[in-house]
Amino acid sequence: MNEKVIMNKAADNIRIFSASMVERAKSGHPGGAMGGADFINVLFSEFLEYDPEDPTWASRDRFFLDPGHMSAMLYSVLCLSGKFSLDELKEFRQWGSPTPGHPEKDLSRGIENTSGPLGQGHAFAAGAAIAAKFLQARLGNDVMDHTIYSFISDGGIQEEISQGVGRIAGHLGLSNLIMFYDSNAIQLSTTTSEVTSEDVAKKYEAWKWKVITIDGNNVDEIRRALTEAKAEKEKPTLIIGNTIMGRGALAADCSSFECQVSTHGQPLSAAGADFDQTIKNLGGDPANPFVIFPEVKQLYEKRMLELKEMVSVKKAKEREWESVNPELAAKKMKWFSHELPEIDWSVIQQKPGIATRAASATVLGVLAQQVENMVVASADLSNSDKTDGFLKYTKAFARDDFSGAFLQTGVSEFTMSCLCIGMSLHGGVIPACGTFFAFSDYMKPSIRVAALMETPVIFIWTHDAFRVGEDGPTHQPVEQEAQIRLLEKLQNHHGQNSMLVLRPADANETTVAWKMAFENKNTPTGLILSRQNIKDLPARESRFKEALQASRGAYIVQDEEDYDVILLASGSEVATLVEGADLLKAEGVKIRIVSVPSEGLFRSQTADYQEYVLPKGKRKFGMTAGLPVTLEGLVGADGEVWGMNSFGFSAPYNVLDEKLGYTGRNVYEQVKRIL
User: Fold this and answer.
1) Active site residues
2) Do 518 and 449 share a structural domain?
3) Of 24, 69, 261, 605, most Cβ neighbours within 10 A?
4) What CATH number is associated with residue 377?
């Protein structure tokens, strides 16, 4: 049997598995998987370089799947590669199975990213390519010369995020990024011609990509395109593969059932095809389709031997590099093992009474000088979200120059967040990105997937409330904090809060919040920071030492014996409570003030600590510049929350404070009323 016949048979094996998995589960997407099988087979059997025995090897090639609905295709080729068993394929989409409906990050299985919401997967790939370039600039090509592959579908190309990825990847010349576009002209409910008439090739060429158009079901053309893409040293490459949806599918009368919309999102039998005839057509046994053909088994066994030899040579070169470059080798080991440099947070000097975004800039300036593998990005707001505190000590990435550590993404919050997530997925890099808090709405889909993947990206959100002032309600967050804090209430696979959300109350608490974010290796972190200046909270000794208590999510800022009421808030409203407390104390009312930078973290403390800080039965008054629900769970039935029940208004922030009741005088009046 000649080589081309074997390659086609291997692709048919993937098609059989994909169709059978969906048929058995009575749920899934067989058509795209059957069309993309040829490319994925060539990539995994000939091009993708990785260590089958060391899935986290830093120098491996990485494959990012964008259309998660084509999971059956990925599981199938990974089964041929020894990462999944046939029995596990049979459990597709079932409870407790390692083969869920959309792939979830699992490096031990060869899955680099969680995918599903279209567009994000290829953005993660671009971020990984940026990380690789960044690390190449610091460690050299000897250990960081690898390729990032991605697979995208018609839907991913149409998602708006593809504009940001295409623009930025082309602008930066990410020559280590190769993306296959599975162009089968079929979508879930329509053909692509019903929704678009754009010239995708010309679009990517305009973004300065290399574009190669091929028959995506032809082994020779796929191989040629990948070889050409690997040789490209100046541009990212888009391979447009014109493929056949449901390739090999037959109707009951054995006529072709290819290129049908119906096969996109349902089993072949439900779509109108004949499952048995299709499996026979592809060379399988409908009664027992989960069989690896002998020649396909040999093909992938041969590839495993090739990879073993290839990796052996590469790792020998790495060891030689390590012996010649011991300092760089030590850095590389630390960066990829998530080992953090020792930072003395206590010596960071904050100016009194500054905005928490300015306090964040101070911390970023320290990190820029002490953390060599940190990358910060901003969506065209660096001088306003104050990420320029980091930029002052480095420079922005440019084509052919990744010696800096700052990514100017332009106005593209969603793309920016996905790129930073991709950097983190690649490994070796600590990414953070900044924008206005109101614009976190653009980022929500990626934040959610970052939480699912337990990816430690740091999101810096400034202009945290209506005190954006004259910019008006379009820029004034109201409901955003309540939305983002919902992720504090969800648990990830390890039983942890799926996100750490921190809204510090003053400059020193901001330093502590950054310390917490920096040391959080298990989830994304969101820092919610003020535009306006905030008075420092009173302290008995060192304000920084007292602010360290923020690491428990909530702590007592001020306290009196036999207090009458607990005042609680996060962010700038804590200082407002202090003002109100001074007025109340003048009339003999005894006060406890609690700062709650993170309810989720506070709820993870012991029941005794929670009861100590916020005892049940004690009157409570909460103040939030967001929706009242942000604090209602903490206040409970023992009091009230003063919050926003409308969008903001355009006016100077101090006028808004007065008009909306965010003053010490109103705190005084409301507490007197509830007492």
Assistant:
1) 413
2) yes
3) 69
4) 3.40.50.970
